[in-house]
């Protein structure tokens, strides 16, 4: 298939590109900057210059593809509502020209069912244009009924590995700055996690095999207790570990305090996905978060 990938040079996208190419797909990656274009070319994919704000480029990429893997997102927590509106416009623009084709898009497990283990059968509660990510799952479901093979790629909040600059890297930065690695409350709340390479392999499997309307869970570990994450960070930095107020963690505090376990049992069974890469705690023990 000819596959158009947004976020092609991003943290997950840069791992997805070689997976798709190795599987025999012809890949076109969206690139906003010269550096992104160079990275996409180096991976062996074609380049389409554009961005999430350039709806013409998104429409062109989708029109000339057999499938879209939409991984780009504006991770701007100072204007998360604006990021959601951008996401909704991007999804609408691409799905409008994808009848009879596939649309796989990044979502998450973090907001599904706080306090209990989320499964692939749970409907995403975020709905409407003002919801986080623009209510993309509900929006995409409307296109399933219009002949688009939509697949929700629900990633764990922590997609880890060497070079990770996401949530775990932020927790490391905070612990280094404060001189203590913290957790909220008793630290028993759980965070799902997946290694970047395992997540990329799942995207490829979902592209080839997931049915229309499916939600797949890129979750290798159902839930790592926050206090164990804090302990691993404390060990890596050589700082004490202690409970801390949620406000000590800034913008990430409420998410780090949440209990958001998630299962991937149905994904593994239906797609034959078997995560094999290091766990989150193994990655923290490897030391690359502390360089």
UniProtKB/TrEMBL annotation:
One of its GO terms (cellular component) is cytoplasm. InterPro entries: Epimerase_deHydtase, NAD(P)-bd_dom_sf, NAD(P)-dependent_oxidoreduct. CDD domains: SDR_a7 (cd05262). Signal peptide: none annotated. Residues 3-213 form the NAD-dependent epimerase/dehydratase domain. SUPFAM superfamilies: NAD(P)-binding Rossmann-fold domains. One of its GO terms (molecular function) is aldehyde dehydrogenase (NAD+) activity. This is SDR family oxidoreductase. It comes from Dactylosporangium aurantiacum.
